[in-house]
Amino acid sequence: MTNTGATTALYDAAVLADVVATVRERLGQDVADAVERCMSDTLARTITPHADGTAFVITGDIPAMWLRDSTTQLAPFLHLAGSDPLLADTLAAVSRRQQASILRDPYANAFNDGPTGAGHRDRTGGPDGPSPWVWERKYEIDSLAYPLQLAYDLWRTTGRTDHLDRIGEVGSSIVGLWRAEQHHETSPYTFERTDCPPSDTLVRDGRGPEVAFTGMTWAGFRPSDDACRYGYNVPGNAFAAVTLGYLAELAGQVLQDDDLAARALALREEIVAGIAAHGTVTAPTGERVYAYEVDGRGGVLLADDANTPSLLALPLFGWCAPDDPLYTATRALVLSPANPYWYTGSAASGIGSPHTPPDHVWPIALAVQGLTATDPAERETLLRQILATDAGTGAVHESFHVDDPGTYTREWFSWANSMLCELALEVAGLRTYRRAER
């Protein structure tokens, strides 16, 4: 399930070589080697083009396509797509595959490269379980938001619209689902898995913890694929609001569908108001901050997870400016012991996840910290730290122990490799496409 390069060219090698040469000139040979290795690996080993004009992207060591990961794995290539038509074709092919997957099952988070029946056969999706196209059916807000982001970003960076043939149908499905999940108690979605940790299933016969209406949209699982504690994931809702703005712009300017644009903007306004009313809380320090999750019934989780969308990543996906006071107060909280998933040790300090063992920091979170930093020195320090904690493997891992980078999870995790490249391009002044605050 990887590209052999024998029949389909995914990119112009000269364009990538120019980027690597510039990184080498500005940041040194070690950074250039890492960027070349990680970008080449993504292109050579994770993407399978198909004759139908779509492309399937595996996460690395798991042979399935996550809608979230397949977007973030391509993030550094957006900066090159405007000057590389072959690369733009590849991104368009992935976007088409994402959209087709959503139309197969908008509640699923990961898919197979065909109706193979591989993956998890959970008690969800009807009496026979998920579609054989579905690897996993953990419903997460970001699984719908990230494909909207990729479709929009490719249009903005290249001007092309040939990947948007089904975006109206996809967008309408997303708006309908997010509206249905504003009232989760009447939603058709449930999820139950047996013989697993509590984080891999939902309580209350698969409905999840009880929630009250807030205007935000509910999710069963976080971007880490772990079950939500309180139902309304705040960074996920912020990301949904941003991408609803993208959908409205595509609907109005490309599709000339004023009705879809209006529905997207109306839902966006309700989610934004819900975040303001329920997703911002007073921290123990007395400062107003964003919560990570709430339930509309008084339940609040002050935390952050390494997986994005995260609170730390709010400026990265266009929710706010990096110097916004509410964000900076939240940033200070999540980059401190007040965040139960923040760890510090002799090799690193940063945000981890309950998805991995305690005292494990995620390089993705270190990269996000650098990409949202306002101090150039902090960005470069974090870039060098990621490079120094690869345990000599030449790859960026899912997580590593804060005192021993040789203890790590996932040998091959393409998303982490791509986030290293994003940060390196930022420090080198080559990250040309930026999302404006919406």
Automatic annotation (TrEMBL):
SUPFAM superfamilies cross-referenced by the UniProt entry: Six-hairpin glycosidases (SSF48208)
GO BP of this protein: carbohydrate metabolic process
SMART domains (UniProt xref): DUF1237 (SM01149)
UniProt name for this protein: Glycoside hydrolase family 125 protein
Organism from which the protein derives: Promicromonospora thailandica
Disordered: region residues: 107-131
Lineage top rank: taxon: Bacteria
